[in-house]
Design goal:
Blueprint: H1 3-9, E1 15-16, H2 17-24, H3 32-46, E2 53-56, E3 60-63, E4 85-91, E5 95-102, E6 105-112, E7 116-120, E8 126-130, E9 136-142, H4 143-151, E10 168-169, H5 171-180, H6 183-186, H7 188-214, H8 224-236, H9 244-250, H10 255-266, H11 270-288, H12 293-299, H13 305-316, H14 320-326
Helix pairs in contact: 4-7, 5-7, 9-10
């Protein structure tokens, strides 16, 4: 059970630190500073609602607002837990803070950007906790078309289409998923043909990705203390130029080892993570201040407003000005 879920279930009541650690890490000895790191990360993920997570010094934490947990699939959801189908989740819009849990193991805790895809194997229960507006496309893929695609593959070995790591961005699956939404507009028998062809294309893409990942040597994830150092460094330097050598040095690793282990731990390359954090910080400033776009761009480390706008649209789904106006945020 995740920290945020425990706090939600407490319905505003104080949750002692010892109780929180016992419920989140049962049977494991966890240092208190580990809990504090997670609490800090949750506050960042909450954005403008960070003040709802209160600390009672020396005692514990409480969540002051009403929150809801939406279970993405349950045992009653026969499609989601069908042993003959895999499940593909394609996040169509920015999910400001989503926690994804697969059979009790956290695979994502933090902002999820458009184009993120997560695949789970047949009959695997998945629970997601969303802390903001979201659009997610669920695709349930039968095993038969997967087997048909495998027949055309060299070796004809059935790959495992299940995500054992964190969700990953796949712009090709994202584009195909969005195209699938137009199937109803095609109409008639052509609509079914249209959907079937796109479905096969998605399956082929997932199989190709699975084969490519299977051929890579397994890289261990960055140790928690190293990851914390790297994230702290990113946060401290978010408005300044950041080199891979510098952030790797903060974690006491070489650039090559750091980059591989950081990606194994977060699902993102260091530069992608930094860009995402810069956009998240920019969103906070757009929502909470009346600063101009060029000042915000410079404050979060972009050299030009045009580059900031391009990256912001890629991660948030809208240009910064439209994003600000759609939320009624203050502006000059």
């Amino acid at each position: 059970m995740q920290i945020f879920a425990v706090l939600v279930e407490s319905a505003g009541k104080l949750v002692a630190k010892d109780e929180l650690m016992a419920r989140v890490w049962p049977g494991v000895i966890v240092e208190e500073n580990t809990l504090e790191v997670h609490i800090s990360a949750i506050r960042k993920a909450l954005g403008p609602d960070r003040g709802t997570l209160r600390t009672t010094f020396g005692r514990g934490y409480r969540l002051m607002e009403d929150w809801a947990i939406r279970k993405q699939s349950t045992p009653a959801d026969s499609a989601a837990l069908d042993p003959t189908r895999i499940a593909v989740q394609s996040f169509l819009t920015n999910v400001p803070a989503a926690t994804s849990e697969v059979v009790g193991r956290t695979v994502q805790d933090g902002a999820t950007t458009p184009g993120t895809v997560h695949v789970t194997g047949p009959a695997v229960p998945v629970r997601c906790l969303f802390r903001g507006p979201y659009d997610v496309l669920h695709l349930h893929v039968p095993n038969n078309p997967i087997a048909e695609c495998v027949l055309d593959m060299t070796g004809r070995t059935m790959p495992v289409l299940g995500s054992n790591g964190v969700p990953r961005r796949d712009t090709t699956v994202d584009a195909l998923s969005r195209a699938l939404l137009d199937a109803d507009r095609v109409g008639g028998s052509f609509g079914q043909l249209y959907a079937d062809c796109i479905g096969i294309a998605i399956i082929a893409r997932l199989l190709a990705s699975a084969n490519r990942l299977a051929g890579r040597p397994k890289v261990s994830a960055l140790a928690r203390w190293r990851l914390k150092r790297a994230i702290d460094y990113f946060e401290a330097q978010i408005g300044k130029p950041v080199s891979l050598a510098a952030v790797a040095s903060s974690a006491d690793l070489t650039r090559i080892h750091f980059a591989a282990q950081f990606r194994a731990a977060t699902g993102l390359r260091p530069h992608e993570y930094l860009l995402r954090r810069r956009i998240e910080r920019a969103q906070e400033m757009l929502a909470e201040t009346g600063m101009s776009l060029v000042d915000i761009a410079l404050s979060v480390g972009f050299q030009t407003q045009s580059h900031f706008t391009s990256v912001f649209k890629r991660y948030a789904g809208q240009p910064p000005r439209a994003w600000r106006e759609s939320r009624g945020c203050p502006r000059l």
